[in-house]
Amino acid sequence: GFISIDCGYTANQTYTDSRTGISYASDEGYTDAGLIHPVDKGNLQTDLADRYLNLRFFPSGERNCYTLRSLTPGGKYLVRAAFGYGDYDKLNKNPTFDLYFGVNYWTTVTIVSSSTAYVFEIIAVCPADFLQICLVNKGSGTPFISGLDLRSLTSDLYLEANVTQSLVLLSFFRDTVGFGPNRYHFGTNYQHIRFPDDPYDRMWQRYENVDGWTDVPNKSNGEIKNSTNDNYDAPSAVMRSASIPVNDSRMDLSWSSDSSMNVGVDPKFFLVLYFAELEAVQELRQFDVSVDNNPLASAFSPKFLLPTVLSGIVQGSNEHSISLVATSNSALQPLISAMEIYMLRPVNESTTDSLDANAMMTIQEKFSVKKNWVGDPCAPISFAWNGLNCSYTPNSPRITALNMSSSGLVGEIDASFGQLTLLQHLDLSHNSLSGSIPDFLGQVPALKSLDLSSNNLSGSIPWSLLEKTQRGLLTLRVDDNPGLCGNNTCNPIQKKRRNKTKLLQIVISVVVSVSLLVLAVFLLVI
């Protein structure tokens, strides 16, 4: 599946992009934060997509997020975020802010030129049935975003992207093609290749012009097919042309990171090189491939109309070189069809347990809680929601305490509170909660304290809560609820017991205590 969002576009409206046929929707429903703003087309580079003519910016809050739902837990996705500043705020101040894939750092967005469109991509595994893409304010300008895309990938693609690490596509500015991701095709086709030619909507741009190189088209007109065990699946539109040196036996390419993104200290890169022989040659084409003078492949020969991939990890520094050098046995020049360069980004943080996270997001939406309740409830720790205590086990964080006292809650107690199965302490006091106290609160196995005081609750207290209180397992506060068991006709709800004894009356004042319940039972016996 595809999710294609035009950030800041007219609410509840969609349109179809004329170049790709992809349908784009507004970001309404994906985030409830930020403000929208148009961008003057004259302040942007020419020939940009319509999505850059508006944006959403986030003037308040340290972390603001988009939530993408109905995903596959453990599924692999390509996510692309696009940014076109265009001096929309008339401040002429290029911002810098961080981008997160869920709870894990993705990259730092540094706007170097206000007229340039910046695109960042990540290939990663989604741990739950939803994903949050978050922008984090670093105090260096207001975060904003122009577009957000999600593309589903099959599990056998890019095996290097897994639960322990993600692939962040490197970005770079080249004089002949401008700023763009380091995903290149070589040859006669100057076209920017993406969907529908690439079914995964990867964006391929032509590598810069190099003196002394020429292009090799697919003169045979034969179909280029990927093998069944191809873990990268480059589209035929990319593989149907290549570049070779004209009067030389070697090709040299260089690559580095761009100032628009932070690669960190001692970065680790993942390089993917694609090759395919496009002519039914009778002579030998054979060459050595090295990266930073370290061999990647020796005596390599591309296969006719069949893509072959060479890949490897490159570590350290920001400047790197790739050399393709013909062997002494080769009668033909080296050749290259396509290239991708990624950063390996470790997955250091675990997301909050999915059931806990879904419960908290439902609570946040139902009661319209603001505070800092955006993104993952527990992670990273520095962004944990106010009022939560979380246990950070080796696995996913779990919510153990929730304090929503004096939070302006209105309405009935939502069933989502009962889904927090490791919750020990719940404080809902000093709100305007109404209706009865639900029995599911007594079914929360770890609950030790429950404060419902100073609300508008009515009816009787469920037996499940009274029984836990009687056994000394729960401290319960329900005072200052005028309609709650406030007269002699209010009877608690109880389970059927063998002796069929019915409690006739329980007077609740400030705390429902063990001693009071024991006394009540004693009076019944008398």
Automatic annotation (TrEMBL):
Instruction: Provide GO CC annotations from the record.
Output: membrane
Q: Where in the cell is it found?
A: Membrane
- Which key words are in the record? Leucine-rich repeat, Membrane, Repeat, Signal, Transmembrane, Transmembrane helix
Q: Where are the transmembrane segments?
A: 503-525
One of its Pfam families is: LRR_8
How does the UniProt record describe the way this protein sits in the membrane? Single-pass membrane protein
Instruction: List, alphabetically, the Gene3D superfamilies matched.
Output: Ribonuclease Inhibitor
* High-level lineage: Eukaryota, Viridiplantae, Streptophyta, Embryophyta, Tracheophyta
- Organism source for this protein? Triticum aestivum
**Record-annotated Malectin-like domain positions:** 5-343
**Does Ribosomal protein show up as a keyword for this record?**
no
Q: Know the name of this protein?
A: Malectin-like domain-containing protein
**Predominant location:** membrane
